[in-house]
Amino acid sequence: MGLTIAQKIIKEHLRSGDMTVGSEISLRIDQTLTQDATGTMAYLEFETMGIDRVKTEKSVAYIDHNTLQSGFENADDHRYIQSVAKKHGIYFSRPGNGICHQVHLERFGKPGKTLIGSDSHTPTGGGIGMLAFGAGGLDVAVAMGGGAYFITMPKMYKVNLTGKLNPFVTAKDVSLEILRILSVKGGVGAIIEWGGEGVKTLSVPERATITNMGTELGATTSIFPSDEITRDFLKKQGREEDYIPLSSDADAVYDKVIDINLSELEPLIACPHSPDNIVTVSSLKGTKVDQVCIGSCTNSSLFDMLKVAAMLKGKTIKDSVSLSVSPGSKQVLTMLADCGALSDIIASGARVLECACGPCIGMGFSPNSAGVSLRTFNRNFEGRSGTKDGKVYLVSPETAVAAALTGEITDPRLICENIKVDMPEKFLINDTAVLPPASLEESKSVEVLRGPNIKKFPDARPQTDSLTAELVLKVGDNITTDHIMPAGAKILPYRSNIPYLSKFCFAVCDESFSERAKAAEQSFILGGSNYGQGSSREHAALVPMYLGVRVVIAKSFARIHIANLINAGIMPVALENPDDYDLINQGDILSLENIYEGMDSGKLILKDKTSGKDINLVCSFTERQKGILKAGGLLAFVAKEN
Ligand code: MIC
Ligand code: SF4
Fold it and tell me: Which SS3 state, helix, strand or coil, does residue 27 take?
């Protein structure tokens, strides 16, 4: 039987397991990346492992999420990351150099390699034929130390592309179309491989837009073949030697095949507050727009920006609209400046922001109250923009510009002539903003600089054999890690200060949660389906752990979050019968006995002492995961093993 592209890379990197779908496998990791919002914690964790130098082929620390430096906290964290990177063999991408995924694609990604990153959009690397996963910071720390990365062997889905995109219909619309078809849960447990004749019509940055948003499907990762288009991209980046061809075997077997004819697509839009809430742009024609934001790791490539500049050239944006443009990298920004396209953007009335995540993570540019914001980003979760009642829609750069010019949601095909974008023969290469690590010899004298905002990692709480505690919180379906541990300009500087962060835990859903959980000392949480979707932030597990949450019960969990819960020593268990969700109420006293036995058998009985009802729970832990839970988290487990 032939292999898919992903299976070929897995086979080559397999450290344990036998590639049976649903079983645990572990992989050798070639490259890692971190960003600043998750990086400080990941490097603190790496330091506790006592390893001098990273064992990966390449590890890069990016500063891109919080570049405001309002107050010392943030600047201190950046200095910490810079110095710890220098000491331990990690490349450091300075603030302003760009968004981790865009820069990694341009400068470091290699087809056929494995990459894990402490950011859920790491699968952007799939656009260049990498097997790239989003992971918790602890998993990244372990991989930097040479440890394997553990996942559940995924199913294989194939999206077969035919045809060719029409003008003003883009790779972003392909991402929105697959979200319309599959929903935010449709990719759970699967790797999505893109193939078919239509693939040949998509450039590497367009492919990366698509694999980037595979994260919103809940997919383990997404990947494109590595072909002549990949080679051309690498050549233009001065890295042709990194090219290898990669394709699936003709007789590879897929668990699901989805056909999309690119020629039949039209501009699409994701409505508030979920990326799978898809309608056509034309169906919302005339909706007033207050703000437009262009950029993020989904749509900030040179190709995207050149199209934006061409559409804006010689025009002025509507008075009622505020437009921001954040190019994805220093390379993109410099090239825009050199060819004059940046002037066209500025002249239109746009505000050009730094090459960073910016508004995507709520770092400024929050919409006005109840404002409508059209964004080329990948997430439109409630409150993520920083404005609780803001209405965020996700669109392509072309649809974004059409709204900025008209002040309303507008199908770009109606207001623009076809635009022609000439891509350069070569990208401009200047890596001065990537600082290489110290040599092994020099590294001994490098001092790691720590600011006072870096607080101690919370103490491990081993999972006990029985637990009686209150259900401090009951929440519904599709709870995101943005609900559990919000980000934004006010909170992001405290990512290395768990006690301070804990005040904001679940605040979007319930402002008194933090105080109640702390007072209860130990507690349960009940969630609906797809609990923990979205960001990879391990803080969404570490903070509840700090607040005493011991067990999370849900109808189902998102992949990265379930791993983060286990890594933090919180036991995730599922309701055997999802309808039992209605039988349990917030405030009930719940009890679990013989937990260790239950971990082995996969079955536990939850006694609701308040209602007197017994509820069946199911779980499935590997020996390693049981060990982690009993030790009180991955750090304690690793320490115990050494
Ligand atoms: C996001 O898009 O939510 C983030 C911010 O990039 C996160 C990481 C984080 O919370 O630091 C992600 O996607 O993993
Ligand atoms: Fe940054 Fe937004 Fe991409 Fe997350 S989704 S990495 S916040 S640009």
Answer: strand
> Going by CA atoms, what residue is nearest to atom 4 of ligand 1?
535
**How far, in Å, from the CA of 312 to the mean position of ligand 1?**
30
Task: Look up the pTM and report it.
Answer: 0.97
Task: Give the distance (Å) from ligand 2 centre to CA of residue 497.
Answer: 21
Q: Residue 254: what pLDDT? A: 98
Closest listed residue to residue 394, CA positions, set 263, 525, 213, 522: 213
Question: What's the rounded mean pLDDT across residues 216-226?
Answer: 98
End-to-end CA distance of the chain: 40
122 alpha carbon – ligand 1 mean position (Å): 10
Residue 119 CB less than 6 A away from ligand 2: yes
pLDDT at position 206 is: 98
DSSP 226: B
The ligand placed nearest to the CA atom of residue 535 is 1
Q: Which of 35, 66, 138 to mutate to test the pocket of ligand 1 (most atoms within 8 A of CB)?
A: 35
Q: How far apart, in whole angstroms, are the C-alpha atoms of residue 49 and residue 386?
A: 36
What is d(CA 526, CA 476) in angstroms, rounded to the nearest whole number?
Answer: 8
Structure letter (DSSP) for residue 363: S
Q: Is the pLDDT of residue 410 over 90?
A: yes
Kindly tell me the sign of the dihedral angle through the C-alpha atoms of 224, 226, 229, 235: positive
How many CA atoms does the CB half-sphere of 63 hold within 13 Å?
Answer: 28
Cα(557) to centroid of ligand 2, in Å?
A: 22
What span, in angstroms and rounded, lies between the C-alpha atoms of 324 and 345?
Answer: 10
